[in-house]
Design goal:
Length: 381
């Protein structure tokens, strides 16, 4: 992996090049390229360019740290964990599992967690046997022994549990002096709950231990983990807000609450917290908060449209109302964005105004709502 400066715009990027090149490496590289390039999400490292000739390479966004470089408070660990769960939830919805989650493969960019290195990833429908390659300390039982079944998205859940355990306690749940001892521990031993080593971690004992169940069918989904962590974080933030007597501190807590409700797609609640931010703000920030709150209420209506097999004209009309609600500079930026404005331009080009959206376009519209919401908040937060 190399850190380089791209000639055309001077931006720092990371470039990955295989150490050796042979037929097996080539197939692995092509699979990685195909699966990873199909994943476009705020919590997944994005590929910006790739080629296989004359030398295979992947060019991706540059992140300056990984989880392995950071010591976490419980609060920070929870905030990172929910972002990882968000990325996994999205990848699993696309039928792709990572299968090699570890601290070195979760990078940090501007405080945001991004899952990287999808080299072991495989489309779930193609998975026919356990993979031989894995990181021993983070391996799930099904990666070690076939009696536990095939590797799939629940393999990621096990590795997520190991990862969260480690960033909370500073130690891994399964240890050993060599691969054989580590494998024996994973297959036969039950780890102590995280709170054994850090009392404040008791709040996530339940979800971590569920992730580390030997039988993968008993592990939660990424969506269930995400909802569980969001509930915990919301409760903690609400208590902090009640106790806060400082406007600056309260504003930051309200921003965190708005962000959390956006992650769980509770846009009405996001709008409510944005209006509270406006009430304790002044000048330009107050105006922006109010406008974005209005945009979120319209976005909620847009998401509800997704459930009604809408016509193209209905969707475009609502989109234009959302743009009108935003500050002019934001509206212009969103309309030019390839994953926001260009989605609607393409939709209008592919379908007639009175034509109803098909399943693919409705799925794209749902993803648009989530992406648009995150981008809106980033302008304010």
């Amino acid at each position: 992996m190399y850190k380089v400066r791209r000639k055309r715009d001077g931006e720092l990027v990371a470039v990955k090049i295989p150490k050796g090149i042979d037929a097996m490496t080539g197939k692995s590289f092509l699979r990685e390229l195909t699966n990873w390039r199909n994943l476009r999400h705020e919590n997944i490292v994005e590929i910006s360019d790739a080629n296989i000739f004359p030398v295979p390479y992947l060019e991706m966004e540059y992140c300056d740290k990984s989880l392995a470089d950071i010591e976490f408070s419980v609060e920070d660990a929870l905030n990172i964990a929910i972002q990882i769960a968000e990325g996994l939830k999205y990848a699993h919805s696309k039928g792709i599992a990572h299968k090699d989650l570890k601290p070195q493969n979760v990078l940090i960019k501007n405080g945001k967690a991004k899952i990287s290195d999808w080299g072991l990833s495989k489309v779930l429908s193609e998975s026919t046997s356990s993979l031989q390659a894995f990181s021993p300390f983070y391996a799930a039982p099904e990666q070690i022994s076939k009696k536990f079944g095939k590797t799939d998205e629940k393999t990621d859940i096990w590795q997520f549990g190991v990862l969260l355990y480690e960033i909370l306690t500073g130690r891994r749940p399964f240890e050993g002096d060599d691969v054989v001892q580590i494998a024996f521990s994973i297959l036969n031993e039950e780890p102590a709950p995280p709170s054994t080593f850090r009392k404040e971690a008791a709040i996530v004992d339940e979800i971590v231990m569920k992730c580390l169940r030997k039988r993968k069918e008993e592990r939660p989904s990424a969506e269930e983990i995400h909802a569980y962590l969001a509930k915990i974080l919301k409760g903690r933030l609400e208590k902090q807000l009640e106790a806060s007597k400082d406007f600056g501190e309260s504003r930051e807590i309200l921003k965190s609450l708005a962000r959390l409700h956006t992650l769980t797609e509770e846009y009405e609640e996001t709008a409510r917290y944005l209006l509270k931010i406006a009430d304790i703000s002044s000048g330009n920030e107050r105006e922006i908060a109010r406008k974005i709150a209005n945009a979120f209420r319209l976005l909620l209506e847009m998401r509800e449209i997704c459930e009604k097999h809408p016509r193209v004209s209905d969707v475009v009309e609502k989109y234009e109302m959302i743009l009108d609600a935003l500050p002019a500079n934001m509206a212009e930026a969103f309309d030019a964005d390839e994953r926001i404005g260009l989605l609607f331009k393409r939709m209008k080009a592919e379908l007639r105004d009175e034509q109803h959206l098909d399943t693919q376009h409705i799925e794209e519209l749902r993803h648009f709502c989530h992406l648009f919401a995150e981008r809106c908040l980033s302008y304010l937060l």
